[in-house]
Amino acid sequence: MEKMKANKLKEYREQKLISKSELAREAEISLVTIDRIEKGYDCRLSTKRKIIEALGLDIDDKEEIFPE
Asked: Which range has the top average pLDDT, 2-16, 23-37, 54-68?
């Protein structure tokens, strides 16, 4: 069973007024993947990088979305 990890993706995305589908398109990943991550499922580092870049953040700001 996958372990759930808290992240701030939904909160951050909603603050920026970005829809899930818009973020998925920008990050070039599926809407299902965005949905799963927002529910706390883990994802690949490459997926995290795509999301961070699609949100216009620097990789150094990853803690804002994916706290360790």
From this structure: 23-37
**Could you tell me the pTM of the whole model?**
0.90
Indicate whether 55 belongs to any domain. yes
How many domains is the chain built from? 1
The amino acid sitting at 54 is: A
**CATH number of residue 18's parent domain:** 1.10.260.40
Look at residues 32, 23, 19 and name the one whose alpha carbon lies nearest to residue 52: 23
* Span 33-48, average pLDDT: 96
Structure tokens at 47: 């997926």
Residue 16: alpha-carbon gap to chain centroid: 13
